[in-house]
Amino acid sequence: MEAEGEAPETAASGTVEDGVFPLSKVVGQDSIKSALLLGAVNTKMGGIAISGGRGTAKSVMARALHRIMPPIERVKDSDFNIDPETSLGEVDTFLRDKLEAAGQTIADLETEIIPCPFVQIPLNVMEDRLLGSVNVEQSVKQGKTVFEPGLLAKAHRGILYVDDINLLDTELANILLGVISEGWVNVEREGISVRYPCRPLLISTFNPEEADLRDHLLDRLAVSLSADAKPLTMEERIEAVDEVIKFSDKKDYKADMSDILEEEEQLRTRIIFARESLPETTLSYEQKLYLAEEAARAGCQGHRGEIFACEIARASAALNDRRVDAEDLRMAVKLAILPRGTFINDPDMQDEMMPPPPPPPPPPQDNTEQDEDQEEQQDPEDNEENEEEEEPPEDNDAPEIPQEFMFDAEGTPIDPDLLEFAKKEKTGKGGGRGLVFSQDRGRYIKPMLPRGRVTRLAVDATMRAAAPYQRARRERNGQLDAPADRRVFIENSDVRVKRMARKAGSLIIFLCDASGSMALNRMNAAKGAAMSLLTEAYQSRDKVCIIPFQGDASDVLLPPTRSIAMARRRLETMPCGGGSPLAHAFNLAVRTGVNAQKSGDVGKVVCICISDGRANVPLSYASDGGPTDENREKPDKAALKEEVLAAARQLGSVPGFNLVMLDTENKFVSTGMAKEIAKACGGRYHYIPKAGEAAISSIASQALADAKD
Q1: What class of enzyme is it (predicted)?
Q2: How many domains does the chain have?
Q3: Is 508 left (phi over 0), alpha (psi -120 to 50) or beta?
Q4: 304 is annotated as an active-site residue
């Protein structure tokens, strides 16, 4: 059901031939479909994020929404889809200058009706294509800078769809969400200054198994739902298969197409009327207070939770043609506040959270005579006064709010429907991958001014920079009247180079203390952790290296590799015993990591040091000209400590390096040296007296993920 298809030519003429699956025929996913309809009514919601595994109809629902979107009216031939009913301050730079020069208003311009725009952002899009850039051809012809609008200009007042947003370049994702939050695009580049509105409905989909989506990106979007939250039953799965097979057979599906078109036309009409009534749909103070209290109870950070909840409640009420009531507020809490909550939803605790059953009623007693005597003793006038006091005054204009909160005081959902809906999406396995920026190889992401020798010329950016000055340069060189001469005059100030980026793995260096009686246990734990990480290296492109230190110097036992066979062959024999040259191990780790980074395949380096931090061999012993055994003196402990801390500071100062100290020292004889090393390096400290391969592998994976973030 994740089939790709082009958007229909018009939102009002969907047919079976357009290749877009109807939204009404998607089985299940009621919450996602409701959120999409609310976003179509109120674009102030900002955007909708849909997560889910493969084949869960994420992109199908996004494209199906376009079928029912009403057409829009814009200024004729406007490249920015300007609304003819907007004010002068809400138009693009070019139209504003045109109206001011002609002394006209927007009402004086011709208009046209076009289908609702549907723009998809590809993952390999560049910044100039996204925001807009100089049109080289027109700039050369006209002798001045001519701006060519980007994808965001075409998406204004329409749908902006981003598939696999978690794989989108980080810089582009920040630009995209900044534009969506502000509603404006500002382009200041290559001698141009342009500002135009951009307020589309952003629909983003992603598979959390491929990579995680950063929390601050999700917070910018009003709604974040998971297509895996409520799996389909067996009957629903069969129904979904039947609908897809029937849709693929065009002849059989044409019989149902008339009903589908009629249903979509009704939805389109509801959206149009809901948009008209949305400005008049407001929330009372009590309703806003209820949403704010729910956000506070859920532990939402910031104020976006209640802000988006208010917009969702308004859209829900407008779509159902009513005032904002309790059902709209519950929908807002469900879609906007619940995903931002910081509660811990434990399925095993749900039975304990349910209220206890009511106590049994007391046994009946024969108190009829006593009740009759009490009624006779009461004054009938007092009874009438009490009845008048008990009747509350009716207020039909009072705002309707839910009778109970959906979160308790500790931030745990107590509403049964909310508990069922609160199933979190699966966490990602892949995580973010590091990027290596260079000017020699990789994917071309953006142009930049050269620094030193030009290696990869950005022809497109260079042409754009030189295009506005071609007429003047032709006049200066006497070539203005030579139409057959198509030479382009480029100067040094026009030259731009390519900034390349490529995915790079990380390097995990295990620094294992192979001295002392427990050396064999530490080495076996490091070996097991390395083999465990190597089994996942093909997914993340990570490499593993093991450097044991014992005797007078440390040595690279396992060079940086992703090969499991090489690791098994190298780790068959492991040296143990002798002194502890920790400072030399830090220096060797720096040299090994820097050499790996220079190869271009490694971005981040994480050093996992399994030691108690106590060194007894100075750096001078590791050099070739060091003293012999007969001439050696007992090293000074203070000098050894300062030498180790200096080596740790040097490691922490190298870009892209991170240190994790795993303290294996017994607390009864602890000196705290491992914690001092971690502090000097700016790394992390963990106390694991009995370090096993599972614990070391888990800590290494977490440290690697933090380094990539």
Answers
A1: ligase
A2: 4
A3: beta
A4: yes
Residue 584: pLDDT above 70?
yes
* Percent helix / strand / coil, the chain, rounded to 5: 45, 15, 40
Side-chain half-sphere exposure of 169, counting CA atoms within 13 A: 22
Q: Give me the numbers of helices (H) and strands (E) for the chain, helices first please.
A: 26, 20
* Nearest Cα to Cα of residue 179 among 200, 161, 209, 162: 200
Chain Cα centroid distance, residue 473? 47
- Residue 639, number of CB atoms within 10 A of its CB: 10
β-bridge mates for residue 132, sequence order: 149
The first and second tokens of residue 222, run together, are: 């009003």
Say which of 74, 268, 297, 304 is annotated catalytic.
304
Measured over all CA atoms, what is the biggest interatomic distance in the chain, rounded to whole angstroms?
Answer: 122
pLDDT in tens, 176-189: 888 888 888 888 87
Structural domain contains residue 673? yes
CA 593 to each of CA 346, 599, 655: distance values in angstroms, whole numbers, following the listed order: 42, 10, 10
- Distance between CA 82 and CA 394 in Å, rounded? 48
Q: Is residue 581 part of a domain?
A: yes
Bridge partners of 602, per DSSP, are 505
Chain position carrying tokens 């010329």: 457
535 and 605 fall within a common domain: yes
- At position 283, the amino acid (one-letter code) is L
| Cα–Cα distance measured from residue 675 to residue 469, given in angstroms and rounded to the nearest whole number | 62
* Contact criterion met (CB below 8 Å) for 537 and 545: no
40 inside domain: yes
Host domain of residue 447: 443-481+488-501
Confirm if 269 and 69 have CB atoms less than 8 A apart: no
> SS3 for 578-611, per residue?
CCCCHHHHHHHHHHHHHHHHHCCCEEEEEEEEEE
Query: Global pTM?
Result: 0.60
Q: How, if at all, do strands 657-663 and 558-561 pair?
A: unpaired
Residues 558 and 457 in one domain: no
Interval 134-170: pLDDT, tens: 887 787 777 778 888 888 888 888 889 888 888 888 7
Locate the DSSP E strands across 286-377.
none
Q: Are residues 473 and 613 in the same domain?
A: no
Q: What tens digit of pLDDT does each residue of 280-322 get?
A: 888 888 888 888 888 887 777 778 888 888 888 888 888 888 8
How far is it, in rounded angstroms, from Cα 229 to Cα 29? 9
DSSP string, 219-281: HHSSEEEETTSSPPPHHHHHHHHHHHHHHHSHHHHHHHHHHHHHHHHHHHHHHHHHHHHGGG-
